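So, can you check this one?
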Amino acid sequence: MREVRNRGRLWRGVFAVLLAFSLVAVACGDDDTSGNGGDGDPYAAPGSAADAFDMYNAMSGQARTDALIAAAQEEGSLIFYTASSGMEPVIEAFEDEYDINVELFRGNADTVLLRITQEFEAGFYGVDVFDDAEAFTVARLGMTYEYVNPALTDAIPGYDPATHVAATRLSVYTQGWNTDLVDDSEVPDDIAGFTDPAWCGRLSMDPRDWVWYIGVRDYYLDQGWTEEEVDDMFRTLAECSRFDRGHTTQAQLLLAGEFDASLTVYTQSVDRELEDDAEAPIAWRKSDGSWVKPLVFFPQGASLMKNAPHPAAAMLFVDFLLTEGQQILALKDKTPTAIAQAGGPLEGIPNADLHQVDFDKFYDRDTWATRFDELLTAGG
């Protein structure tokens, strides 16, 4: 019997906290999430980092860098929350470069989001930088501050400083296969090809990937499909798939031959297996370099926390994430970065072939996650 994703107690806790935040904001009459503090801002606590952030945001060039380094080294430390497992090499390089200690809290995305929202609800501001896909959610709640550094952010496709999120990497959903079990000639050009009865019983998907569902759905709607045609496709895929949670788990089970192909695996999850063993029987590109369409992605990024206890170190760390950090993530961790890197995992893939998940739908998590659950249940 397959298990369909259950948001369960953890997300009920998160939603309860978010509701509390929204009620506070309404009661205070504050509809501004720009991070500028002021009367009516429930998060403009004493010790807000706004003045420091404003000062550095107004600076540029070497003067900005020199001022940040001096102040950050005086602060001496940084508190960083993330759900990513690939940030350790970046942290180590930052500590070596600036002699600033980074205190890391890492957990799965739901756990980190719950922790940060509960801390803010309690009036405890103990984090400087938050880096995750959920950074957009946290920013919408008014907990973050604007990051201004056009010299770096101009290279990020679609960067909008109003979001308060500087994208550092992309979560790119793809389809992978075991090359011992699947020949290139079998792999379809697009994901709809996996509805062929020949694939039934040979597939796996992560039942939590409602974000992927949004991106694939919108891609096919843009191709002229009807909503019912798209939903029928997902029902068929669900009927023919087993469910395995986790993108790293998907890659590991795929490598072990537990199933022939994964419908929802990250590119980096496959690439890391190949980095460990270039002969590993796993791929997400055919031998000619092509891939299954569409490549759906959602950006993950770094946000400065409004009441950061170490504002200079926070801003210096975001600068680092967008410079040396991008190179480390792309080349060491095989992570698709927001600023393209030569030799990186998405080299040779045009931006036009990367399909970003609609932000408005992402924010409407309950609607779309529920809809995806229903399709999986109907397919089962």
User: Anything to note?
Assistant: The chain is about 45% helix and 15% strand.
